[in-house]
Amino acid sequence: MTDMSAAVAAPLSALKPAALAAPTPAQTANRAAIHKTAQSFESQFMSNMLGEMFEGVETEAPFGGGEGEQAFKSFLMDAMAKQMTKAGGIGVAAAVQREMLKMQGLS
How many domains are contained in the chain? Predict the structure, then answer.
């Protein structure tokens, strides 16, 4: 058997560097927590931006205005931001997640 055929016959797992090995359950849980945190951060960021966008918008009766609108406007902004993030967002979560993974020594 030649050297080349021995390399081809070797299992692929033997050729993988240690860094490319399957992640441990702890790493998987850490990645999931980082993903969730990044998504939450983007949702909060989007909620703040939406709040600023609608700051000067006045709604006339009978469809808006009053104390009820002021009380529930932040809930509407949060709900819209969460849906926007779920639909793909604006890329803030991906950037935050990438940096958090780097800080944890994960790729």
Answer: 1
Helix residue spans in 10-91 (DSSP H): 12-15, 25-53, 66-86
pTM metric for this prediction: 0.70
Residue with tokens 């990438």: 98
Please state, in angstroms and rounded to a whole number, the distance separating the CA atoms of residues 25 and 65. 51
Dihedral pair phi/psi, residue 104, rounded to 5°: -90, -5
Residue 89 located in a structural domain? yes
Assess if residue 14 is contained within a domain.
Answer: no
How does pLDDT run across 37-86, given as a tens digit for each residue?
A: 999 999 999 999 999 998 887 777 777 777 778 788 889 999 999 999 99
Q: What range defines the domain where residue 101 resides?
A: 25-53+66-107
* One-letter amino acid for residue 31 of the chain: R
